[in-house]
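Ticket opened by: R.M.
Priority: normal
Category: complex prediction / small molecule

The reporter submitted a protein together with glyoxylic acid and asked that the result be attached to this ticket for the collaborator who will pick it up next week. Submitted input follows.
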Amino acid sequence: MAMMLASSRKIPCFAQRIGRFAQRNRCGLKHAQTMEKPCVLAPIGQEAIYPCFAPCIEKHFTIVSYETFAQKREDFADKIQAVFVWGGALKVDRGLLQSLPKLKAVVNGGVGVDHLDISLINSFGVKVSNTPHVVDNATADIGMGLMLASARKIIQADNFSRHYESADMPESSMGNDVSGATLGIIGMGRIGYKVARRAYGFDMKILYHNRSRRKEEEERAVGAVYCEKMEELLQKSDFVMVVVNLSPQTHKLIGAKELAMMKSSSTLINISRGLVVDQDALVDALQRKVIKAAALDVTYPEPLPRGHPLLSFPNVIVLPHIGTHTVETSQIMVERMVTNALAAVNGEQLPNEVKI
Ligand SMILES: O=CC(=O)O
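Result attached by the on-call engineer:
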């Protein structure tokens, strides 16, 4: 009977229609619920860096993408309570701050906040947070990856395997051992120390230069020797890795003078910020073979424009700033950003507020 009725009364058709109706209602409900969530501005959608992490933000917030905001600024201006930023993709300038009267926080993914004018942002009563600790392992790993790739000519060798009809293995496939070589770390904060722990496992000799000396037991644990003067580190190291924050004191810290102090057989690795190294001086040093090679996760600008002289050297590796880009790190980073944004929206202390 059920079958007959179903057939004669076209019940499946109605069921489908009811289903669609219910679905529409559910969507409507979802929409209503999400509209009640506080709005945040985040790079999701076309311009997204981490599209797969949107659900983590959407659990608590309604996301307005940068793109949508750019098109319909006035629709969202008095709704947005937090801005999610990864690097300098969105300029948090006076104009933006003036147009967001309800804004409570700028939550930054990553540790470096050199792209944010914190005093300006604070002057609008808006707080800034970052995600310290989270990025340390991934960033230290990219430093080690760059050092090994450069020492063992991994990129050139891969290129040769793919194009050996047209590409020569330049000069020689012979690289250099990192084991037994000296690594000089400039900036022995959390990330620098993680690099030292890894390099110690590779039997490297470790020198470091930092504003303040590490505790003796910390030095001993990784066999690191403190160089009060950076010159000493530059003169003695086979690999120099730069891991400092960008500040007025570290802006172009490595310039022509510093490069000239390095061994002609040495390699410069930068995992901090592009502007810590004077790029013109680096190009000149490479052209004149003042140093052997360079491996850079960071440059200015990022990415480097095609045709930039640094991209013409086979002994230079350039990455587009991917130090923190792992699924695991990014997931924790987004969770921390959400925690900070929630605290700001609820008028609580931000767990990772950056103060000046
Ligand atoms: O560049 C990465 C960071 O600042 O964490």
